[in-house]
Amino acid sequence: MPSGKTVKLVLFEVLQFAAVSVPLFVVMERFAGLMRDLKGQEDRTAYWLVVAASVAYVTSVTLLVWVPLKYLMLKRRRFITKIKLWRPTALAYVILCPLPCFAFLMAASKVQVDAGQQLDHFTELPVSLVLLCLICVDVVERIRTCSLTGKADSSPDSDFDLRGPVLTHLERVTTVTGQLQHHHHHDDAISQNDSPSPAPTDAITTTATTTINGTPAARRYRSDDDPHRQPTVNPRAYLYSPTPRSGPLRFLWSRDVRSEAFVDGFLFWLDTAEMLRAAADPRVFYTAWVFPVFTLAFLSTLRLAQNPLTSSSGVALQDFPFLVLRVALLAAFGGDVTPALYAAKNLLVCLSYVYFTFLARVVKRHSMF
């Protein structure tokens, strides 16, 4: 019977391969059906040519790119394990699947405009399927190191556990010089006859217990390291102790990084989904507006390959381009094509990035407070 790790590995690999192949087959089949409708129901040559091209493309990229890349990842070759700033699997997926899918969506708009017919908006099922598979790949990459049963395995490199060290208490520890101090009183008469020597300094050492990801760790501080540090009076002074969540509603405070990965995945791509939804409007899909919409949507998917995601890439690949395009769409069509809320979101993200990255330091340098 296969082990749990083997079952998880097979499940993840099947899901990711399905995320690569299924959207391509669906989009290209819809495009083949569109070509058949434009040529006439009797002429099926174009239909089968597109279907054969889709099968050949999926087979080629699977054998030449996807399988070799997965082999290198699973075998953990040296040049693969050194890659820390981006995800090779996610980058390969973005290039192999969303790029040709969006290209065929734009081609569908072009052939219908050239033929003077509006047969299919071509955006509902294909676009939703592409984004759903994109989220699936993202979630699989994020929970790959977690167990699917029991409690989630927390690792130091986890992107979800952001809890920092918590100072729980200070404990006074008697030093060696403190223990020898009472012997000095008994030998006072003898020490008076001896040559004077510097008295030992009674250093107070305190132990600070910190909790890092649920693991206690002790750090010692000596009062003689800092001449201005005052020794503690109480033998044990609790500075912070997290209150355990108890009671009948304690399940509301429970958290799991695996379920949070699914929530974060959908929220992370919500802006891209809204941008692609604007392409469903006939005023956008059957005009030249469809090209910047799908082009910028694809550029935003490149964020999937970065690990970890930085605010600069989010602004450069999504928020600033989306802001420019949404302002142009609002000026051309009003609020019917794209909501003003998303334009405000892109504007606030761009302004906050510029302020906290560049202007906050200048303001602090010249501030009087």
TrEMBL record:
<keyword id="KW-0812">Transmembrane</keyword>
<feature type="transmembrane region" description="Helical">
    <location>
        <begin position="46"/>
        <end position="69"/>
    </location>
</feature>
<feature type="transmembrane region" description="Helical">
    <location>
        <begin position="121"/>
        <end position="140"/>
    </location>
</feature>
<feature type="transmembrane region" description="Helical">
    <location>
        <begin position="340"/>
        <end position="363"/>
    </location>
</feature>
<keyword id="KW-1133">Transmembrane helix</keyword>
<dbReference type="InterPro" id="IPR020394">
    <property type="entry name" value="Uncharacterised_FAM23-like_TM"/>
</dbReference>
<feature type="transmembrane region" description="Helical">
    <location>
        <begin position="7"/>
        <end position="26"/>
    </location>
</feature>
<feature type="compositionally biased region" description="Low complexity">
    <location>
        <begin position="200"/>
        <end position="218"/>
    </location>
</feature>
<feature type="region of interest" description="Disordered">
    <location>
        <begin position="181"/>
        <end position="239"/>
    </location>
</feature>
<feature type="transmembrane region" description="Helical">
    <location>
        <begin position="284"/>
        <end position="305"/>
    </location>
</feature>
<feature type="transmembrane region" description="Helical">
    <location>
        <begin position="90"/>
        <end position="109"/>
    </location>
</feature>
<keyword id="KW-0472">Membrane</keyword>
<protein>
    <submittedName>
        <fullName>Transmembrane protein 236</fullName>
    </submittedName>
</protein>
